[in-house]
Design brief:
Layout: H1 6-10, H2 17-32, H3 35-57, H4 69-100, H5 103-107, H6 113-139, H7 150-174, H8 178-194, H9 207-213, H10 217-230, H11 237-261
Helix pairs in contact: 2-6, 3-4, 3-6, 4-6, 4-7, 4-8, 4-10, 6-7, 6-11, 7-10, 7-11, 10-11
Length: about 270
C-alpha cells in the first residue's frame, strides 16, 4: 500500500451518500452544460440513419409479422444511441480529468471506489435515458410506437446503459489520451453495435453469422429492448436479461478492482 492510496481505502469502510450525490450532480451538470453536443447531436445522428434506411429498405425488408421496417428500426437506433452515449459519458469525463490534471481532487475526496463508481455510472445512465427519451419522442413523428412490455424496455435500458457506462469507466482508466479512447470506439463500440441487429433481424443472416451474433452482448441489449416495443424478439427476453446482467456484473468487478487499486490513476 502506498501513502497516496490510503485516503480512498480509509473511506471504503462506510458509505458516503452526500459525497456520492455531489459527484453524481457534478457529472450530470457536466453533460447538461453542453446538452447540444451530448443529447441533441446523437438524436440528429439517429434521425439521419432513420431517414436513410427507412427510404431505402422500408418496402424491401421483412422482419417480424405485422411490424414494418421503420417501427423495427426505431428501437434499435435508440439502443445504439444509449450504448454510445453511456460509454462516452464516463470515458470522456475520466480521461479529461486525467489530461487536465484535476483527477487528484477526486482521488483525495472522501469517496470510496464504490461511491465513485455509483456516481459516474448513475450520471451516464441519466444521459443515456435523456437521449433515449428525446429520440423516442421524435420517433413518434415517423410512426406511433407504444410499449408492449414497458418493464422489459426500461430494465434493458438501465442494464445496457450501466454496462457501457462501466466499460467507459474502464476505458477512461486505461486511456492516457483521447486517441486511446478513439481506439475503444473504433475497434469495440462501433463494430459490435453495428453487428448487433440494429438494422436487421439476425434470422435474416447466414447460419454462421447468426450464431456468431449470439456471442455479441450488444445483440441481447438491442433485442431485449426491442422486445419491450413488440412483445417478440429473436432471443427469449429472460435470456437477454440474464446475459446483459451477467455482462454488467463482470465489467463492474473489473472496474471496481481498478478503482480500489488505483490502477493507472494513482501513478
Amino acid at each position: 500500500m502506498t501513502e497516496r492510496a490510503q485516503p480512498m481505502q480509509a473511506q471504503d469502510r462506510r458509505f458516503n451518500p452526500l459525497g456520492t450525490w455531489t459527484l453524481f450532480q457534478k457529472e450530470v451538470r457536466r453533460f447538461m452544460s453542453v446538452i447540444g453536443q451530448t443529447v441533441l447531436a446523437p438524436v440528429i445522428t439517429a434521425v439521419l440513419y432513420l431517414l436513410v434506411f427507412q427510404h431505402v429498405l422500408e418496402d424491401r425488408v421483412n422482419v417480424y409479422p405485422g411490424v414494418g421496417y421503420t417501427a423495427f428500426l426505431i428501437p434499435g437506433l435508440i439502443m445504439m444511441s444509449i450504448i454510445q452515449n453511456a460509454f462516452a459519458n464516463t470515458s470522456s469525463s475520466l480521461t479529461q480529468s486525467k489530461i487536465m490534471g484535476n483527477l487528484v481532487f477526486l482521488l483525495f475526496a472522501p469517496l470510496s471506489a464504490v461511491e465513485i463508481f455509483v456516481a459516474f455510472v448513475g450520471a451516464a445512465i441519466v444521459r443515456a435515458a435523456c437521449v433515449a427519451t428525446v429520440l423516442y419522442a421524435v420517433g413518434w413523428l415517423f410512426i406511433p410506437l407504444p410499449l408492449q412490455a414497458p418493464a422489459a424496455a426500461i430494465g434493458m435500458l438501465v442494464l445496457a446503459a450501466g454496462c457501457l457506462a462501466v466499460f467507459g469507466l474502464i476505458a477512461g482508466i486505461l486511456a492516457q489520451k483521447f486517441d486511446h479512447l478513439a481506439a475503444f470506439q473504433n475497434f469495440f463500440i462501433m463494430p459490435f453495435s453495428f453487428l448487433s441487429g440494429v438494422f436487421y433481424s439476425i434470422h435474416s443472416l447466414p447460419e454462421f453469422w447468426e450464431q456468431a451474433s449470439r456471442f455479441n452482448p450488444f445483440f441481447y441489449m438491442i433485442d431485449g429492448f426491442r422486445y419491450g416495443f413488440f412483445g417478440v424478439a429473436d432471443a427469449p427476453i429472460t435470456h437477454s436479461l440474464v446475459v446483459v446482467a451477467g455482462f454488467f456484473l463482470l465489467l463492474s468487478v473489473v472496474a471496481l478492482w481498478m478503482l480500489r487499486a488505483g490502477y493507472k490513476i494513482r501513478s
